[in-house]
Design brief:
The complex is a heterodimer of chains A (about 110) and B (about 120). By secondary structure, chain A is mainly β. Chain A has strands at about 5, 10-15, 20-25, 30-40, 40-50, 55, 65-70, 75-80, 85-95, 105, 110-114. Chain B has about 120 residues and is mainly β. Chain B is globular.
Chain lengths: ~110, ~120
């Protein structure tokens, strides 16, 4: 059974703190994604990685960075957390290629910045 | 460019009645289309996808979706709704011409409520 895990389900951080969100997949997928989900705004792509050490900005990369040192692990970093980054963060992975490959999602991390 | 729209924020149906959750899309070429479901406090789960061929696609939990190229739509359907179908549903599209093969665009989501 395919599995994407995220390091925390709930996280509370203070403004200005550096925050790390970790995601691990066990499916040997090349592609990994970080989204944030806010009510009424759907899923917005923050960053996308298509290989180890390779990354692309998504639709809302400002205030975020990512790291992918190993194929199975994709980290989202909030360099200096702000209250407007309070959100649900979803990690996903998929096979790479031109086919219709669906994404597999982790359970999400609900981050609150106070 | 690729985009997707879910025109209804909320859909309410009675248990046992048919349900439809609407999705329209826009792509430069031909689309791959997906439906995902999110149950409360859970991540998204894949339901079904359209690749090519038969316009009626069958997926998990008795759901199906109808691809209509002329109307650029991919509506999700189920003949008889269950209370347990209550969830948030997302439509997603990827243009086959999109050389960035992994990136899909998601709609804003539709909350389905099935009442007993």
């Amino acid at each position: 059974d395919v599995k994407v895990t995220q390091s925390s389900r709930y996280l509370v951080k203070r403004t200005g703190e550096k925050v790390f969100l970790e995601c691990v997949q066990d499916m040997d997928h090349e592609n990994m994604f970080w989204y944030r989900q806010d009510p009424g705004l759907g899923l917005r792509l923050i960053y996308f990685s298509y290989d180890v050490k390779m990354k692309e900005k998504g639709d809302i990369p400002e205030g975020y960075s990512v790291s992918r040192e190993k194929k199975e692990r994709f980290s989202l970093i909030l360099e200096s957390a702000s209250t407007n980054q309070t959100s649900m963060y979803l990690c996903a992975s998929s096979i790479s290629g031109t086919g219709a490959y669906e994404q597999y999602f982790g359970p999400g991390t609900r981050l609150t910045v106070t | 460019a690729q985009s997707v729209a879910q025109p209804e924020d909320q859909v309410n149906v009675a248990e046992g009645n048919p349900l439809t959750v609407k999705c329209t899309y826009s792509v430069s070429g031909n689309p791959y289309l997906f439906w995902y479901v999110q149950y409360p406090n859970r991540g998204l789960q894949f339901l079904l996808k359209y690749i090519t061929g038969d316009n009626l696609v069958k997926g998990s939990y008795g759901f199906e979706a109808e691809f209509n190229k002329s109307q650029t739509s991919f509506h999700l359907k189920k003949p008889s709704a269950l209370v347990s179908d209550s969830a948030l549903y997302f439509c997603a599209v990827r243009d086959r011409l999109n050389t960035n093969a992994g990136k899909s665009t998601f709609g804003d989501g539709t909350t389905l409520t099935v009442k007993p």
